[in-house]
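Notes continue from the previous slide.

Worked example: a multi-chain complex. Inputs as given:
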Amino acid sequence: MTGTTYLRDARVVRWGPAEFVARVREAMSIYAEAMGYPSTVVDNRAGYATAHAGRRGFRAVAALGPDDVLLGFGYGYSSEPGQWWHDQVAKAVDLGVAEQWLCGGLELCELHVRPARQGAGLGRLVLTTLLEDAPHPAVLLSTPEGDTRAWRLYRSLGFLDLARNHLFPGDSRPFAVLGARLPLEQPDDA
Ligand SMILES: CC(C)(COP(=O)(O)OP(=O)(O)OC[C@H]1O[C@@H](n2cnc3c(N)ncnc32)[C@H](O)[C@@H]1OP(=O)(O)O)[C@@H](O)C(=O)NCCC(=O)NCCS
């Protein structure tokens, strides 16, 4: 694993599964805050995320501020048949897309930055650190449709459309499924 990267008062570090699980409730509090969900989702989501930490190919990155306060995080794991998201996306995309992108890809499951710290480059640094040296041929994610900061970030890193306006069960919002080949092309401002 590579070392720490600094961005102003924050440092961005890789987390192993145990470090991630130790701070999973804090991470899921940021998830709820960033997504505008009630804090009642935190425990449930923490349970899922803890299970995800045991999945093959799990990778996590944290942005930590002074006194180690958690400012943002991202994590993902190898996307495999039998996983809920993988199977939903396999149905949402064309067969050729599924064959070329889905198997062996890294699912970016969560990427969130505390609202007060958004728009200052932390999310980008968390994501690029997470993808650096990933052994996967591609990274995949789903994000709500709309003109959002997340979209601008993914587009600036070269993510392509794999499916648009997909409805996942239990969520009325349309989502896009995006993907990028790894390693990422050198960004313009690198
Ligand atoms: C999405 C999220 C993780 C991004 O983290 P962030 O720290 O806010 O984002 P960053 O500052 O690193 O990068 C995004 C911004 O940088 C800009 N940017 C990034 N790379 C750039 C580049 N090479 N050139 C120009 N602009 C660039 C983006 O356009 C965007 O700026 P803007 O919104 O001010 O126009 C964060 O905003 C967040 O938590 N949002 C709410 C939750 C969410 O949507 N999570 C993702 C769910 S899929």
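Summary box: Residues 34-35, 111-113, 118-124, 141, 143, 148-150, 152-153, 156, 187-189 surround coenzyme A (CB under 6 Å). The radius of gyration is 16 Å.
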